[in-house]
Amino acid sequence: MTFDAFSRETVRVAGGAVCLRRAGNGPAVMLLHGFPETSLAWRKVAPALATQFTVIAADLPGYGDSRLSPEAFESDCVSKRTMSGVLADALQELGFAQFAVVGHDRGARVAYRLALDYPDRIRALAVLDVLAILDMAEHLTYEAARQMGHWFWLTDSSRVPETLIGRDPDFYVRHIIREWGGAGGIDPEIVDEYVRCMRQPEVLRAMGAEYRADQIDLEHDRTDRMSGRRIACPVLALWAQGGLVEQFGDPLAIWRRWADRVEGGGVPGGHLLMEEAPGELNARLAPFLAGTFGVCFRVRG
Question: Active-site residue among 59, 65, 104, 105?
């Protein structure tokens, strides 16, 4: 199976319209991309998983061809809690009461919020090259902050960042991908698709609103930490070996502050793991998901 064989669907719920790609049979696994990508980021990973699972690669609410309803914007911000609620409703609409979720970058922040807010529905969580926003805020160093300039710029309370990106999204998207080490592993037509989406005013607005919600997201994390709320499902944490995540300490130890059952490790490559190390990623994801759902899985292709 190739990624082209995945169906293209749009699921409309109260919070917006979720554009997704779906294929396979068996337990449901939702894949969530990061910035500045779309569900296309999973094209090298999803087909192998679809041999044993129902794989749903979604454009994050507000990104790609997904859209958010006007009510999703709170003081021009869109929290991860709001985004996760839209996705939970979309999976419910598709008939999946329970599912596993795999998230990268911004998608991983939505994924762990799903696991915290919907513990009865999330069977397993995989987070790729990311830590909870609270842990990053608490352990930030000057050197790490230098590498995260893009993040801090986009949290600006004005609309200046997305306005400037909208003037030349081609330049900005290609710059970010090159900076994060993925330029050599992404075909030009794929980057063109990422740029197409970033040209859309609705996407620029949602992107800015999502980054500006950092204080809301931090407060949600703090409230959960203080109340002792934890992720109930098994967690797989993978990250770029020698990359930014390791500057905050031992990633497994940090994720164990949020969950009891955590496994994982570093993966050779850069931040865009799905582009640079799809084989290694599948080799780690497959047995983790199989163990969660109690199915046999053999990595293919």
Answer: 105
